[in-house]
Amino acid sequence: MRIKTSHLVLPIIAITIYAAIANMHTYGCWTPLTITLLSPVNTTYSMNSVPLTFTVNRETSWIGYCVDDQGTVTIAGNITLSGFLDGEHTVIVYGNDTCGIMSASEMVHFAVDTTPPNITDISQEPPASNVMPEDEVTVTATVTDYVSNVMQVTLNYTNGNGTWSKVDMVNSNGDKWNATIPAFPLGTNVTYILKAEDAVGNGITTEEMGYTYKYPVIPEFSTKVMLSLFMLTTPLAVLLYKKGKNAPSN
Questions:
Q1: CA 154 → CA 96, 138, 194, distances in Å?
Q2: CA-CA distance, 239 to 219, in Å (whole number)?
Q3: Does residue 232 carry a pLDDT above 90?
Q4: Three-state DSSP class for 183?
Q5: Please, are residues 153 and 186 in contact by the beta-carbon 8 Å criterion?
Q6: Strand pairing partners for 102?
Q7: pTM of the predicted model as reported, rounded to 2 decimal places
């Protein structure tokens, strides 16, 4: 008696389905693999190494991660990622369960900022050569930080008495920051430095950059005196020149 091939199809399919169900039941494949990424998180880090920490809800046969779409790296568990350059980054963790079904964590975006702000274009008004006893001095600087942004800029000054005073600088326009040093008496020598800090705590001072700024407080009448002397000496110089020109030659 011949058995039609078509009569075998349904039993084979049933056996295949039963074997698959039994395999899923044996290895727990009914429950999808869930990968939860705990670190890094969506923030800015002040160091170039970041912990890669994650959890899974059941056994895996393989785990790997991918940073900045640069390819997948196989790992056995939590590790520390290092060597990041300043800027924006992404990371995602992949895993296969014991049935070979792949899952992935959510992609996390984060940033690394290990560089302090940059302080440039420092100027003062009045200029250092012409500060009078009644003058307040306005100090202006350009301060930039393109990863985590500038958090605070301070102006620190001393009049030579051993005590430093601090003034918070104001972000007046774009990257421009300014603050004012009060007036000091005649003969005072003022020294000042600037300090900048970004949102993750990277800080720097102009002193660390190799710059310290100073100015003396000069007499209030010094410019008037110089002008008076110029006005007095100019006619005298002209007179002497004419006299010498008209003198008979030997």
A1: 53, 13, 6
A2: 31
A3: no
A4: coil
A5: no
A6: 96
A7: 0.70
Enter the DSSP assignment of 222: H
The strand pair at 108-112 and 118-125 is best described as unpaired
Interatomic CA distance for residues 12 and 8, integer angstroms = 6
Name which CATH class applies to 31-112.
Answer: mainly beta
Tokens 């100027």 label which residue? 123
**What is the pLDDT at residue 30?**
77
Give the pLDDT confidence of 194-228 residue by residue, as tens digits.
999 999 999 999 999 999 999 999 975 545 555 55
Residue indicated by tokens 């900045």: 68
- Largest interatomic CA distance in the chain: 156
Q: At 25, list the tokens.
A: 């039941």
Around 149, how many Cα atoms within 13 Å sit in the side-chain half-sphere?
5
Give dist(CA 198, CA 221) in Å, integer: 43
Distance CA(210)–CA(122), nearest Å, equals: 13
CATH fold for domain 118-223: Immunoglobulin-like (2.60.40)
Q: Which two tokens stand for residue 228?
A: 């008076």
What are the residues facing 191 on neighbouring strands?
A: 158, 214
Start-end of CATH 2.60.40.10 domains in the chain:
31-112, 118-223
N residues, the chain: 250
Q: Which residue has the tokens 């326009």?
A: 173
Name residue, tokens 């899952």: 103
Which helix H or strand E contains 83, and what residues bound it?
A: none
Question: Can you tell me the distance from the alpha carbon of 173 to that of 195, in angstroms, rounded to the nearest whole number?
Answer: 18
Distance, first Cα to last Cα, the chain: 156
